[in-house]
Design brief:
Elements lengths: L2 E4 L4 E4 L18 H10 L3 H13 L3 H12 L2 E2 H8 L3 H13 L3 E6 L2 E6 L2 H15 L1
Antiparallel strand pairs: 1-2, 3-5, 4-5
Helix pairs in contact: 4-5
């Protein structure tokens, strides 16, 4: 079934057979230079986008997200987190290293014990917004 409709500046034809992903696209290639210029000026540089990608990649592992939830509740040492998650201390330490590398968690030493906590309140905001999005 083919449909055609107006999107404001140009006609768009929808052909389901041509697009197995069901994504609508323009029939004509006519870039909107004003939009392109405005958006290009607002785009962050490549290094910043790479860092952002790495940050979101970290949230792709449920163990890391579980660790962040533990740290919402309290500052904890690796052995406490391992006990709560049913994981080895080595597995928890590995995930904490990844979280620390993207500055989501921080650590402090007290004698022989290292305590971990959320780096700042932004971490809670990111997780809570993600949770709100998946619950919609």
């Amino acid at each position: 079934m083919e449909r055609e409709y107006e999107t404001g500046r140009r006609a768009v034809r929808y052909r389901p057979k041509d697009d197995p992903y069901n994504v609508e696209r323009c029939d004509l290639t006519c870039p909107h230079e004003d939009i392109i210029a405005r958006v290009r000026a607002e785009l962050p540089d490549e290094d910043t986008l790479y860092d952002l990608t790495e940050l979101f990649r970290i949230f792709g592992d449920s163990t890391r997200v579980r660790i962040l939830y533990l740290l919402f509740a309290s500052e904890m040492c690796v052995c406490d987190m391992a006990a709560l998650l049913g994981l080895t201390q080595s597995a928890v330490s590995h995930q904490l290293r990844a979280l620390k590398n993207v500055r989501l968690v921080k650590s402090r030493r007290e004698g022989k014990t290292v305590f971990y906590s959320l780096a700042d309140d932004h971490v809670k905001v990111i997780i809570n917004q993600g949770l709100e999005h998946v619950r919609e």
